[in-house]
Automatic annotation (TrEMBL):
It comes from the Bacteria. This is DUF4412 domain-containing protein. Keywords: Signal. The lineage of its organism: Bacteria, Pseudomonadati, Abditibacteriota, Abditibacteriia, Abditibacteriales. It comes from Abditibacterium utsteinense. Residues 1-20 form the signal peptide.
Length: 269
């Protein structure tokens, strides 16, 4: 259950591959949205300039900002407390700061199969439609666990600059918000070329299924390649640096409060 709650969070919140200048809005609807204080869905705004990326999202009753500076570092900003923390750019390290204290990221392996379902007209764009199936095996403190995950992806006409053709590695062409869901201990094999093609453009729509059950739908709008100011990728003046541990502690307290409020306000049977 805990992993399912965190999954839409990673989808909406992690950084994406770099482009000269790129911005868009994503709205992720999920049964777990209420736990994050967003009954109408998690709305995130994504900005990319060169190798820098910025994601803004309203979750757990507070605005969260993540700035990824290429492969060097990730800055997490909390406007509510005017604090920020600087950490590793690895998805595993970033995910660790968002998990409850003492929790460990499970090691996972995944076999991928991809099928192109055709082309669908979506909001006036001829969107390539893919189905990506993932068979995951996890090693957890409770023992081995198997899980089947599926993603339906509708592409767009705006491609990411990092591709399998230029990097020679289909996995590296995947958006970091997809790789970030699984952590750094994930071993992926199978149809990586097809997976890279499915996520080769900014997705207009993405549906995630876990063991055959839908858990989230993400819609992407306001896609733009207009120039962005460099100030978007800097820490605002007057903000105070805190440790990764202190930042995680504040976020976890907000998560607990949000979930407690949800349980208190849920309809009585």
């Amino acid at each position: 259950m805990k992993n399912l709650v965190l999954l839409p969070l990673f989808v909406a919140c992690c950084a994406v591959p770099a482009r000269a200048d790129l911005s868009y809005t994503q709205t992720t609807s999920s049964p777990f949205g209420a736990m994050m204080g967003n009954s109408s869905g998690i709305v995130s705004k994504v900005y990319s300039k060169g190798t820098f990326n910025r994601t803004e999202a309203q979750m757990f009753g507070r605005k969260m900002i993540t700035i990824a500076r290429g492969a060097k570092s990730v800055i997490q900003i909390d406007p509510a407390t005017k604090t920020y923390t600087v950490g590793s750019a690895s998805s595993a390290a970033l995910a660790k700061t968002r998990m409850p204290s003492g929790a460990k990221m499970p090691s996972m392996s995944m076999t991928v199969s991809t099928k192109k379902l055709g082309v669908q007209n979506l909001r006036g764009i001829k969107a390539p439609h893919y189905l990506v199936n993932m068979d995951m095996k996890m090693s957890t403190p409770r023992g081995p666990q198997n899980m089947k995950m599926g993603m339906e992806v509708w592409g767009s006409n705006v491609s990411y600059p990092i591709s399998a053709k230029t990097r020679g590695d289909a996995l590296q062409s995947l958006p970091a918000n997809i790789k970030g869901m699984f952590g750094g201990a994930l071993n992926i094999k199978g149809d990586l070329k097809g997976m890279g093609a499915a996520f080769g453009t900014v997705p207009l729509r993405m549906k995630i299924l876990m063991n055959g059950q839908p858990i989230s739908t993400t819609e992407t709008t306001n896609i733009s390649t207009k120039a962005l100011p460099a100030s978007l990728f800097a820490v605002p003046a007057g903000y105070r640096a805190v440790s990764n541990q202190q930042y995680a502690k504040t976020l976890q307290a907000s998560m607990r409060q949000s979930m407690a409020t949800m349980m208190k306000n849920r309809p009585k049977r």
